[in-house]
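Quick illustration, no need to memorize.
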Amino acid sequence: MKQRILPLLALFCLAAAACAQPATDAQPVRATLPNGLKVVVLRNTLAPVVTVEANVLAGGNETPEGFPGMAHAQEHMAFRGCHDMTADQTAAIYALLGGDDDADTQQNITQFYATVPAADLDVALQAQANCFAGIEDSQAQWDKERGAIEQEVAGDLSNPTYKFIDRLNTEMFAGTPYAHDPLGTRPSFDKTTGAMLRDFYDKWYSPSNIILIVVGDVDPAATMAKIKALYGSIPHRPVPPPPAIHLQPFQSSSFTLTSNLPYVLGFIAWRLPGTDSPDYAAIDILSDVLASQRADLYGMVPAGKALGTEFGLAETYRKASVAFGLVAQPAGVDAKASIEEMRGIILNYAKNGVPPDLVAAAKRSELAQAEFQRNSIPGLADEWSTALAAEGRTSPEQDLDAIRKVTVADVNRVAKQYLLDAPTITAVLQPSSSPAPVSGKGFGGAEKATVAPTKPVQLPAWAAGPLNKFQVPKTFIPVSDTTLPNGIRLIVRTDTTSPTVTVVGSIRHNGDLQTPKGQDGVGNILDQLYSYGTTTLDRIAFQKALDDIAANESAGYDFSLQVLKQYFSRGVQLLADNELHPALPAQAFKITQMQTAHFVAGNLQSPGYRTTRALSTAILPPGDPELRQTTPQTVASLTLADVQQFHDATVRPDLTTIVVIGDVTAPEAKTVVEQWFGAWKATGSKPNTTLPPVPLNKPSTAQVPDPERVQDMAILSEQMRINRFSPAYYPLELGNHVLGGGFYATRLYRDLREESGLVYFVGADINASKTRASYSVEYGCDPGNVSKARALIVRDLNQMRTQDVSPSELNMAKALLLRSIPLGESSENAVARGLLGRAVIGLPLDEPLVAAKKYESITADQVRDAFSKYVQPDNLVQIVRGPTPK
């Protein structure tokens, strides 16, 4: 849940003059400036990075009547020009900072956040201060941004779960601001003007209505001084009171929506008190109890009554929250009976009480999650922002104090009070029939696009000096790298940020190569059976053992563990037992086999699967191992012996890499891992897990109908004659960051979003393995704009192949990549996953430093030559999911 820190004094000084409290590494520095800006600076030395997160206390609640997306539109316009900073300069600055920035609009807050190298903190603060000193909000810029935000709306309206939540809020919160989503609507955006946006900004974007959170490897006192210098001169403006929320009674109701998911989802939703309520902590624990794998709701899954179940809080507001129970059934199954069984289970707990042991486990888990949260700098900033801005707390510690005080009686009381005899909304998301993909020859409809000139951006003086002098990282995080006698590669990094340890591991495996003929789906069943415990601990006993130490564990070919330091050995013992000795009970196998067969049957007919399949068959040669297909028939033919044999043949120590990071030394970690994994032995020769190279594909096009989408999702893709170890990989990757990755500062975003408003999102990616590589561009747009967007993409690709990129673009791409290297260490999980990924593919652990040196020396002609040789726009495969492109 939230970060645990020492109890603190009141959050903000009440005096008119600026005031600050001294801080240690365990305490933040806090201040309220004379203009009302509230600031919290928290030192965290996990990595040489810092997250700056500004929270404007205005969101969907504060929008004018008839304009539900006004706050969201204003969030977008902050990137379209601010005080003394043009839109181009804004994009260039954040790209040069590493490109890890974004914003979001919630019901009562709008957040702007960036994670940057600690050395660049002053630039990030200055850029943000400029936007709070004034946003341009010109009609000309809004006319350009309107298309992009309307594409964002179209994308969400193509998501069945979004449509469910939107309908739910409309019925449950009628007559209140909660009834409309802050995303907004196309009709309201069509009526919105730049002047209206400016009025919204003047009304709500006052310093006194903003909370600024800074977390990372900083000097708190010096950072606070800089903030006062940069933000202190922004004029104070009076802010109107937030709109009152007057909840109205609602009647129980039910509805059905069609969806493009491969299974049926059934929901029951209750309206509960929000975060302002003294009952919220007990509600939080109740939600955890009902979601427990030891609770009766999840018990529907191993009983064969559901593909899956969940319980949780779907929406959390100050004055109300929404709790929901979810049950998944195979496509074509009537969910009514399982919905009613789910209702009966939940109401039985509300009537008769919840197990005290599950309450204790939920409390331990919430408190442990607070410790785990300290292992992420951006995650910690978000926790503080949520507590202070969204919930109105003085610190995240308030939430934890409330959790500690929750009793079993409290949980039983809120369950009775808010679940029994309460109105509910029941809903079903029912898969709709989807026609088969339609293939064609050629692309058709593409428009010619002339090359737009690329002009260098002149940065403001305060940004130009620091950002134009990027440095190549010189040092690599210290790690221990050893191989155990049984072949396990063990990598350990000590980090004492919190008293926790994280373990991530991978067993090199390729189901397409290792699955015996006719047994497709055996790996899927094995993966699901890990949750049924071990040969010594059944499903319930195994989960209880994890609950007793508040650990998060998952087993399989990719496995992980999060555990408090004092339980490290016990956690690894449980992980090893699950990984090496899964129970694989016969009855569970029969149920899992049936569930998997039903899921596969629905999945094969789903637009999502058909899109992936259409792409694979287009870019891969016939008979390629990746084209193997799991069917209900192959699943039904499997036996428990097949699963056991597959486990024994593929789960091998000499194919395993384990990364341990946290408050543990390398010798301690090695001792524990050897104790619990050391007896594991490999038998027989190592299997081949590496796919063969493939030839280049031929161009083709296919359209996958999806009746539920209002927006098309388009994928352009082709095979490349390189792999991850090819020398050309680095100039291609550098060139790809000229094309994308830096928002409006890069070509694809500038051409498809900033200038034309055709898309909300466009992403370009090089996916390279040991033997294969593909290049893909993905975007979403209206059906009538698919060919227009594609034409611009092809134009930009051809320009990369035939012309040198400009010096300013090359410099920006290098800065984007080089500054992203320290940003990759902003959380323990990111560090561990990075080490694991490099180890598994066979790259040196310090490959980011190797890459940095390569990027620094790459020239524009090397980028052009690489694109000319390896990127062939005439070979692009085009797959479109959604309405037929016009």
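Residues 628 and 694 are 15 Å apart (CA to CA).
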